[in-house]
Amino acid sequence: MASKTQVVGVIGAGSFGSAIGNLLSHNTDVLLYSRQQDLVDEINETHRHPNLDVDISPKVTATTDLEQIADRCTLIFPIVPSANFRQMMKDLSPFLHPYHILIHGTKGLDLRKITEEDLEKGRIKPDSVITMSEVIREESVVVRVGCLSGPNLASEIFEGQPTATVIGSKFDEVIELGKSMLSSRRFQVFGTYEIKGAELGGALKNIIAIGSGILTGLGMGKNIQSLLITRGLMEMIYFGKALGSSPKPFVGTAGIGDLVC
């Protein structure tokens, strides 16, 4: 296992996946997966991301081969949109083994057995709301999973601005390995065993962020935005408790830390 952690995999060459790849490159070599061959070729030839107009570390090698990622990397960071996450896991799963460690960076939820009528009438059951770590366990043999959550704007990470993240996992080795691979002078990494709360905080805060943007567009001031954030945080906590999380993650880096970002 030690030899494989010399190369860390990132699945998803979007803004956040590429930013995480650059962060990892401070401590290790990185394999960055994209489905787009043109993008892979451009990154490998120029060490620039043409869609983002940012530099990519020379220690990052892009690839279109999921099997290569699984074969060379014990630690893998899946960072793709939540709508595509389950299909990505189905594609990756045949190459995974129980020794793999997956720490995802996707802020979203997977809903199942829910119709539009159910949503309109508020008929949502806890077992219909699936986090990305649960998707990983459902679709693969991987047991040791974790998540990244917190105030992690990709644009600021590319600029080298200081920030922090939290790794949520029930496994000490996941948290410690993630810390050792991601930590740098400008990127502080915390850990929590409250993985579900960390995932829910990252997903639910997006709703409040959209509301805050609407208020700004309407010309509203800081008073009403502060009210939205504080009451929104309480709603996040209530929702989290209904899904089996304690309030603690919501008042930390993964909750209010991300909410005010």
Explain the overall architecture.
This protein is of the alpha/beta class and 261 residues long. The chain folds into two domains: 8-193, 3-Layer(aba) Sandwich (Rossmann fold); 195-260, N-(1-d-carboxylethyl)-l-norvaline Dehydrogenase, domain 2. It has eleven helices and twelve strands. The strands form three sheets. An eight-stranded mixed β-sheet has the order 5-2-1-6-7-10-11-12, with helices on both faces. A two-stranded antiparallel ribbon has the order 3-4. Strands 8-9 form a two-stranded antiparallel ribbon. Helix 4 runs parallel beside helix 6 and helix 9 (195-217) runs antiparallel to helix 10 (222-242).
Please summarize what this structure is.
The protein is of the alpha/beta class and 261 residues long.
Please name the CATH topology of the largest domain.
Rossmann fold
CATH structural architecture of the largest domain: 3-Layer(aba) Sandwich
Structural class: alpha/beta
Tell me, what is the CATH class of the largest domain?
A: Alpha Beta
Q: Which value, in Å, is the CA radius of gyration?
A: 18 Å
Largest sheet: 8 strands, mixed
* Strands in their spatial order, largest beta sheet: 5-2-1-6-7-10-11-12
Give the % helix.
40-55%
- How many structurally independent domains? 2
Number of strands: 12
Task: Flag low-confidence runs.
Answer: none
Terminal CA distance: 36 Å
Strand content: 15-25%
The overall pLDDT, averaged over residues, is 91
Number of helices: 11
**Shape, please?**
globular
Q: Could you spell the SSE succession in H and E letters?
A: EHEHEEEHEHEEHEHEHEHEHHH
Task: Tell me the CATH superfamily of the largest domain.
Answer: NAD(P)-binding Rossmann-like Domain
